[in-house]
Each structure stands twice: as C-alpha cells, then as structure tokens.
Amino acid sequence: MHPGRTAAVGALSVFAGSFELQAAEDVCGEGHPVDLIDLLTSLVDKSILIRTESNGVVRFRLLDTLRDYGREKIHETGITSNCGAATSIRTDG
Length: 93
Description:
The chain is of the alpha+beta class. It contains four helices and two strands; from the N terminus they run αααββα. It has a two-stranded antiparallel sheet. A hairpin with a 2-residue loop joins β1 and β2 (57-62). The chain is globular and about 40 Å long. It starts with a helix and ends in a 16-residue tail after the last helix. Mean pLDDT is 78; it is low at 81-90.
C-alpha cells in the first residue's frame, strides 16, 4: 500500500464505526500530505473505505480487517499524531 494511504488508514483506524469528513479531517490533521477528499476517494475506489450516504450525509467506514491493519501500523511505527491513544472513537449516532 502507498505510504500516504497506509498513514491515512492508520489514522482512520481510531474510528470504531463510520465517520464523516470532518472527523477524518480531525484525525488526519491539516498537515496531511495530500488533499483529504482525493485521498478518501482513492480509498473508496480501492475498496479500502466504504462510502454511504443517508439524508444527504456522507459517511465512511473501514472494513474491520483493514481497521485492524491500520491499528497494527500505528503500534509498529509509534505514530500517534492526531490519532489519540489506542482507544476507538465511536461516531455513528
């Protein structure tokens, strides 16, 4: 996987369920090397993220196995910038 995508999957793995764009911006931070919308679109195109829309609200979700992979990468690299601790963030209402 491309290093930028791997870093994004690691950052997004903090979500226990689905999340909106704003939440992704919060964990990926403003200093992300590529445009976040382009990155999320790329992850959806590669079936790494699932995109759903309900009542005009777009949400994203990592597959469980990929969320586990992202968490492993966080632990392996020690990257914690804007990812918080190893706890999960639940954002599905």
